[in-house]
Amino acid sequence: MLLFPDGDTTDNKHDRLGVLPDELLLQVLEALGRVSKRDLCNTSRLNKRYHRLSDAVLYKSVQFQTPELHLTFSESLSRRPRRGSAINEVTLVYPSSELSQLALNAPVHNSAYRASSFDTLSQTISIMSNLEKLDIAVPDVLLSGIGALFNGPFDLACLKWCSLFYQCANDEYWDLRENIHIFAHPTLETLIIRRARFDDKGFNHLERPHTTALKTLHLIECDISDDGLSDVLELPEALEEFVMTQTDEPTPELEETGDNFADYVIALKSQAPSLKTFTIDSPTLSCRRPLRMREFAELKTLRMNWDYQLFGESTGKPRLQSVGLPPQLEVLEFFNDLGTDEEVTDLLLYAIETKNIIARSWKRMVAREDDCYVPKAIKNACKEVGLQLDIIGAYESDSD
Fold it and tell me: CB within 8 A of 205, min separation 6: which ones?
């Protein structure tokens, strides 16, 4: 017989895995869980040791697709709070229709919780002391309750990845100020925000936090002021990746977003020493002057919609200055056609011809060829200086 430290016994002939240390046995149970959750549940009933290790796998990632599941699980977790420490990933994804079916003053089936206590959802998540990944996509009625999680970041002391999206009536933008303290979280490394609105007030002086560990920030279809963005971007100690996207025809109309591409570059100046990837996919942004990006000493990848967002639009006056490309730039990508502005095309041509002076590390340029063709002069210049030109949408022979 094999005696376990917790007092359970089992037949050694039938439990050959029992002699493995916890670290190896946990890997075996993780592999079993990927094949069959049901078999893993059955394994957890064998003895206390298997139950403890199986729990660590079963509760590692939890997904709530209805509010009823969330509230019922909250009750279960209150009885066994130890399970909360086993949870590493949580996904809350359910539409407004699911929430509307839940009467605000009625009990939840199989649960002692009442739906009017939606703020307790944040309390449930705060019990998950080892939570590393939090994915939120729920109706905006839960905006304040979940936002309270970030007012005390030590409740989620291990959080590293977070995605926030609140569904609003008429597809409106939700107010990021309700969750603004997510930017103050000390351990968070990746933050993805979808369809939020943020004005130019930023942080109030009395609530400004210390520097944070944020490395990656994605703003997907957000209506955000460049001044507000500048304010929150003073917090990361060393941001490495920034992505901001918007549609061709934003709906509803943007109220906080400015119209000048360069203003958002200026908003990122506080992260210039560390930023490695910069992407703004917002075709409605214009640019009146060439960008000045020599301060972005570590930037290697630069992506934008139009060539004139880099060089500035035509002014009708002589142009004596060129763009200030990042000194370590390796990849420059344009999401839309080149050659729509003759003056800007001349500036791009000059930048390519002098790349060994203004951007010695520049190795690759990516362009599109849909309605317009990449100007032949640009193609020839790239060949002459050894700059790889990848044309998306072109025939292979044209690309060569």
Answer: none
Residue 329 within any structural domain of the chain: yes
User: In the 3-class helix/strand/coil scheme, how is 152-211 assigned residue by residue?
Assistant: CHHHHCCCCEEEEEEECHHHCCEEHHHHHHHHHCCCCCEEEEECEEECCCCCCHHHCCCC
Query: Does residue 151 fall inside a structural domain?
Result: no
Residues, the chain, total? 400
C-alpha dihedral (198, 199, 204, 205), degrees to nearest 10:
120
- Determine the structural domain holding residue 354 and report its residue range: 286-400
Backbone angles phi, psi at 292, to 5 degrees: -115, 100
142-183: per-residue pLDDT in tens? 888 888 888 765 678 899 999 999 999 899 999 998 899 899
Cα–Cα distance, 112 to 115 (Å, whole number): 10
Higher-confidence position of 87 and 291: 291
The total number of structural domains that make up the chain: 2
Which residue did the predictor score with more confidence, 76 or 146? 146
Site of tokens 């003895």:
47
Report the predicted TM-score, pTM, of the whole model to 2 decimal places.
0.82
* CA atoms within 13 Å, Cβ hemisphere of 68: 11
